[in-house]
């Protein structure tokens, strides 16, 4: 990497640390003060978007912008629309899809695009691939936020330096990799491992450099916890966080047993929504000083606190190169009606269940359609103590459970239990005629294009 890039990277990190210091009071703000900040920053963002983005100028044409507007007045956007009109969406006319694609092809670590941008892609597993760019100042804001979230979990710059291990996306195209790579200037002692590595290699790498803090996909964290419980892994992290996939209760329980700690939930999305669970561990606080979050139903109507929504609409107050205003994310969440006892001004999101899993539509009794939430399919398998990991796949001929048994377990017995538990759950849901088969496997393949993430419930049928 170029030497002047290293100097830039140091500067970006120093700015990120300063941004963290500036933002320190935010978590003590009142809700009223937070909302006043959001209203003020929103007007700035809208003025900028309309002035610099031809797409938003057209998209907001019917809205009277001569006075302060509220979010509800603005039409939402989808990733597919924005990506389809990329050149009109971005506020720097030098940025084109072709330029970004070309740059991403050659990206190895943390190289800059046009001397100042960082470009990355979101996994294409959910349909539309997203390309995102961050200017150096936007990146510093993001780093500041990341330092704050890490600090909230107890991960702080100190001497001797903490040993951090990030197990995640295997390539520089992905956000988690880049954030970790871009602060590789000596704040922490840092190791980065790809979630797609074979388990024995992950175990060996961790035993060689035992970390104080690990951030890991929960499915991998649960496998590592089992390695620890069975004596092959010998580490004693004081902090563990999981991100990017659903962390099920059985995965959490395994990590608790292995390391005697409560894993944090770390939520980060390339399109700008960030948050962590608080010390009380009762849900996620999104960083609402950076991102406005609306919870809506499938028709886009606001959902009352305490009820589950089908989508989130997010508005990022710090992304000016690619303004994100009322941008749809499919994620099933519920906002707790009561403020969190921890005193933060951010609302508490009780469940982030959709994340990456698919919702399945099955043909039920009498030919009617039955919709099954991933949780309904995961919970019957949650109690199979003989299973190392599993995945449910919907194919033309029914449901297939791919199952990796534990070494100590009777594989045939576990397969039989899994099939029976799933058939029972399907019958209860009114889809008892769905064929269920079990395939035994040694490990589950991870999808490189999705950053090595694993979907526990996945449909292979066309939507
Ligand atoms: Zn809290």
Question: Can you tell me about this structure?
Answer:
With about 475 residues, the protein is α/β, with parallel strands linked by helices. It folds into two domains: about 5-285, Rossmann fold (3-Layer(aba) Sandwich), CATH 3.40.50.12780; about 360-460, 2-Layer Sandwich (GMP Synthetase, Chain A, domain 3). Helix content is about 35%, strand content about 20%. The protein has 13 helices and 18 strands. It has helices at about 5-20, 30-50, 55-60, 80-85, 85-90, 95-105, 135-150, 175-180, 200-210, 220-230, 250-260, 375-380, 410-430; strands at about 120, 130-135, 165-170, 190-195, 215, 240-245, 265-270, 275, 285, 290-295, 310-315, 325-330, 360-365, 370, 385-395, 400-405, 435-440, 455-460. The strands form five sheets. A seven-stranded mixed sheet has the order 4-3-5-6-7-8-9, with helices on both faces. α12 crosses α13 (about 410-430). It is globular, with a radius of gyration of 22 Å. It binds zinc ion. Zinc ion binds near residues 280, 340 and 348. Zinc ion (ZN) binds near residues 278, 280, 344 and 348.
Structural class category: alpha/beta
Parts with pLDDT < 50 across at least 5 consecutive residues = none
CATH architecture of the largest domain: 3-Layer(aba) Sandwich
Residues in helices, as a percent range: 25-40%
So how many helices?
13
Number of domains: 2
- From the 3D structure, determine the CATH topology of the largest domain: Rossmann fold
CATH superfamily of the largest domain: ANL, N-terminal domain
Largest sheet: 7 strands, mixed
Q: Which compounds are bound in this model?
A: zinc ion
N- to C-terminal distance: 43 Å
